[in-house]
């Protein structure tokens, strides 16, 4: 039997055939024991495991959420972006699958080698540009004759969105995306050899009432240095780094030297706005604090101690009488 996962209907049909005698279980076991020849297409070399593809999908799901927030703020309209699929195919097959005239953003991601391609459906690109220029977000597909102003607006918009890609990739690599080329005809764009394996992440994109696809094409040469970080072991590992005794001692010394603000509240009072406006020099405000009651000493904004006022070396001072405890901000801080 093949390694494919059967649907529930296929499982039911198989069980029904076995129970009625249409299929023989012994024959199935015999077929399973026989050697199978699996066809392998060297032009479609599978250089990434399913685990690695899933990791790339998770990264770009985060990228899609960041893009949704970014474009929503920039365009001030309804935006929804989500990952539709992630697959590895030859570069030539990807180029054949996209429109003959489309929006192609090519950018480098140093320190990684190679370049990444972001293909944006013209419907989406024009809807974005229309919103940027104050329109309602309608799309007119005339990508073959872009003006210099239209080209600049589009390239700037997508270049600003690369900051979100940097954030999404930060879990596996610190990259610095830079736009290097803006093209409309994929035939004029040859990033890698036609048979080079690329990962294509397709994003379903909705701008207002306009829908389309954004495809991100990542060649193998870009991902090769960070392939080990795409495994599930890297994502799931929880290594705890133990601090050396010397580091702990230095940390304690620095904490002991840290300055913290201490304040003492003498009391409070409530007066009307009318009385407040009529206050003058020499007026007395009665506080709600009795003279024989201890004062509250706060560290930062958190009450920590009780004390009594006095003088020390001709300076006003406070003597700590007791510690305040209770709630989440007790003496453990």
TrEMBL record:
Gene3D superfamilies: CheC-like, SpoA-like
Flagellar motor switch protein FliN-like C-terminal domain sequence ranges: 253-323
UniProt-listed NCBIfam families: fliM_switch (TIGR01397)
Classification via Pfam families: FliM, FliMN_C
Annotated membrane topology: Peripheral membrane protein
Protein name (database record): Flagellar motor switch protein FliM
Subcellular localization(s) per the UniProt record: Bacterial flagellum basal body; Cell membrane
Location, primary (coarse class): other
Family from the record: Belongs to the FliM family.
Keywords: Bacterial flagellum, Cell membrane, Cell projection, Chemotaxis, Cilium, Flagellar rotation, Flagellum, Membrane
């Amino acid at each position: 039997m093949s390694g494919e996962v059967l649907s529930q209907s296929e499982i039911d049909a198989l069980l029904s055939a076995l129970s009625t005698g249409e299929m023989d279980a012994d024959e199935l076991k015999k077929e399973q024991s026989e050697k199978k020849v699996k066809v392998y297409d060297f032009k479609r070399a599978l250089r990434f495991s399913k685990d690695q593809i899933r990791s790339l999908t998770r990264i770009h799901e985060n990228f899609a959420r960041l893009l949704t927030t970014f474009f929503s703020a920039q365009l001030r309209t309804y935006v929804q972006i989500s990952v539709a699929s992630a697959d590895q195919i030859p570069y030539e097959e990807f180029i054949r699958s996209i429109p003959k005239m489309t929006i192609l953003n090519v950018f480098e991601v140093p320190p990684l080698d190679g370049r990444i391609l972001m293909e944006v459906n013209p419907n989406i690109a024009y809807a974005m540009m229309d919103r940027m220029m104050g329109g309602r977000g309608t799309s007119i597909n005339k990508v073959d004759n872009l003006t210099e102003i239209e080209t600049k607006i589009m390239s700037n918009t997508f270049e600003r969105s690369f900051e979100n890609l940097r954030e999404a990739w930060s879990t596996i690599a610190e990259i610095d995306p830079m736009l290097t080329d803006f093209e409309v005809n994929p035939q004029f764009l040859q990033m890698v050899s036609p048979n080079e394996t690329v990962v294509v992440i397709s994003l379903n994109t909705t701008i207002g009432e306009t829908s389309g696809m954004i495809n991100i094409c990542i060649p193998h040469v870009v991902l090769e240095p960070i392939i080990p970080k795409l495994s599930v072991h890297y994502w799931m590992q929880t290594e705890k780094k133990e601090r050396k005794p010397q580091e702990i001692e230095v940390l304690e010394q620095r904490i002991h030297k840290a300055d913290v603000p201490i304040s003492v509240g003498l009391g409070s009072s409530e007066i009307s706005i009318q009385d407040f406006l009529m206050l003058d020099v020499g007026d007395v405000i009665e506080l709600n604090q009795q003279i024989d009651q201890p004062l509250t000493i706060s560290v930062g904004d958190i009450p920590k101690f009780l004390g009594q006022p006095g003088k020390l070396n001709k300076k006003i001072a406070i003597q700590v009488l007791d510690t305040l405890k209770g709630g989440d901000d007790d003496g453990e801080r």
